[in-house]
Amino acid sequence: MFRLSFALSTALVAHGAMPIDHCTAFVAGPKATAVGAPFVGQTNDAEGGPGDSLVFVPAADHPAGTMRPVLDQTNNEMIGEIPEVSHTYAYTYLSYGVMNEHKLSFGESTCSGRFWAASLAQNGTALFSNKDLSRIALERCTTARCAIELMGRLAVDHGGFYGEGTDVDTGSENLVIADTKEAWVFHILADPSGTSAIWAAQRVPDDKVAAIPNTFVIRKMDTSDADNFMMSANAQPIAKEYGFWDGKGQFDFAGAYSLGEYSNPHYAARRMWRTYDLLAPSLKLNGDLVITDTEAAYPFAVKPDKLITIEDVIAIYRDYYEGTPYSLVKDELAAGPFNSPLRVASGDAEGTYPTGAWERPISIYRGNYAVLNIAHPEGHGVTWFASHTPHASVFAPAATSASSAVPRSYVVDTKKNVDRASLYWAANAVSNWAFGSRYSYAIKDVRAAQKKLEAPLFKLAERLVTADAGAHNQILQEAAETVHTAWWDTFFDLMGKYNDGYVITHAADGTVTSTAMGYPAWWLKAAGFDKAVPSPSSDYLNLKTRMATAKVLMDKIDGKRKRPNAAVVV
What we know:
Layout (H helix, E strand, L loop, with lengths): L5 H8 L10 E5 L10 E7 L9 E3 L2 E2 L5 E5 L6 E6 L3 E2 L2 E3 L3 E4 L4 E7 L18 H11 L3 H14 L14 E7 L4 E8 L6 E7 L5 E4 L7 E2 L7 E3 L3 H7 L9 E2 H5 L11 H11 L30 H8 L49 E8 L7 E6 L8 E5 L22 H12 L4 H28 L5 H26 E2 L2 E5 L5 E5 L4 H6 L11 H24 L9
Antiparallel strand pairs: 1-2, 1-14, 2-18, 3-8, 4-7, 5-6, 8-9, 10-11, 11-12, 12-13, 13-16, 15-17, 18-19, 19-20, 21-22, 22-23
C-alpha cells in the first residue's frame, strides 16, 4: 500500500508527453440509481500507454502565506502558483481528480471548441488545465457547486485555461461532477485572449443520467434558473461579439462554442446514443444522428427505464455496440474471421481516405482506465476502478472516501517496459492475447472470469459503505491482490488454451486435446479461399482420387488389425 504526499506522488507518476484522451464521461442523479446516490465517472482512453497510476494525496494543514504550485499537465513543470488555503482535504486522482474524503467526485471528457490556448510551459498563455482544476477543487470543496464556482473563478480571473490538445479539435474540456446530493456537467474553454476562460454548467436532473462523449452537450440555458444553470459572465458577450449568438432568445452554449462532432461524424454521437439506448430503450432513439453546432441530436439527459446499478454502468463501459447495426463484432472483413472489435487506428495510410473512419465504441483497445464513483449520502463513498480497457479488465472497489492508501497493483511503474506488479499490464496482456486472432473464442472465457471475480466484489463494496474507516485500507489491499493475481492467471490460461491456431484442453490425467479453430465459411469466401487453386487440373483431381482410394484401403486394414490372426484381404 502506498501513502504519497503531493510532491512525492507527482514525481512517481510523471511521464513524458501526455497523450490526448478520448474519454466517455457518465453521470447520474441520485434518484436515477438503485442505491440513491449520484454516480460519476468515465472511461479514459489515450493514444498510447502505459496507463495512469491511482494516487492518494493526504489531507494537510498549511501555514499562512503558503503558496500552492500549479503544474503543467504534460511534464509536471511548475508554471505558477496560487495562495494556499489553511486546510486541504484528502483525495485520490488519476489523469484527473477522482474523489475526496467528502465524496466530491469527478469524471472527464476532452472536447472541441471555438477557442483554445496553450500552457505557459509550452510557450502559451494559460495557467490551468482540467487536471489541476479538478485537483484544486477536491482539495478545497465539499460540494459540486463549490467546485464549479472555484474552477470557473480561477480559470477566468487568475490565469486562463488550456486543454489537452494543441488546436481547437482537442483544446476544450468537460468535467462531470457530483457530491452526495447533486450531479453536474461542466464545460470550459479558453477565451479569445488565451489568458482567461469561458465556462458553463448544468445540473443533471435527479432522476436522469447524462453521457458526454468528447463534445459539449449543454444547449439552451435558462440564466434565471440558478438552481440548474451556472455560466461565466463573459460567455454571452463574447458569443455575441464574435457572431456566435444574435443576443435573442435563450442562450445555446454548445451552439455558440462547440464545433459539433469530435474527430468524425458519429465519433461522439454514437456513444451518447448507445448509453441512452442501453438505459432507456423505450425512447427508441435514432442511432444515425450526428451532433452539429446547431443540432443537439440527443437530449442532455434521459430518465432510465429502471433504476440503474453499478453493473449497468460497467456494461456501458464495456460496450462496442454488440447486437446493434453498428456492432464491431459482426461478420465483416474489418472484424476478421473471429469477429474482433479491435480496429487499430491512426495509421498514416488512413489520411489517403478523407471520408473513411472506424466506428468508435465506448470500450476501445487503447484503454487507459475506467472509473466510477458512488457518492453515497450516508456512509463512505466508493471508487470502482478498472485498469486498461474495460472489456479486458476487472472492475473492483479501489478506493473510498475513507481510505488513505493505494494498493500497488493500481500503480504503474512507467520506467519498466512491463510492470508485472500492475493490474494495467495484466489487463493489457489479456486484451492483446484475446482480442486479435481468437476473439470469438476467448471472449467467453474473459467474461466468465470477470463474472467470477466481480460478483464477490459487489458485496465487498456494500460492506465498505458502512465499514469502520480504519479497516478500509486492508480490505482494499486484499481485494486488489486477489484481482491482480487472478487476472494474470486468466492471461496465462488464455495463452495455454488458445495457442498456434488451436483450442487446447488438458484432461485430469494430463491428456492433451487440440482442436483447430479454423476460419468460418463466410470469411474464407471473402478472403478468396475458394479461388486459391485457379482451376481443378486433371492431376489435382487424380491426386484427390488416389488419396480417397488410399483412405478406403487404410480403413480396411485398420479394421482387420483389430482381429488377431485374421488374414488381410485386399
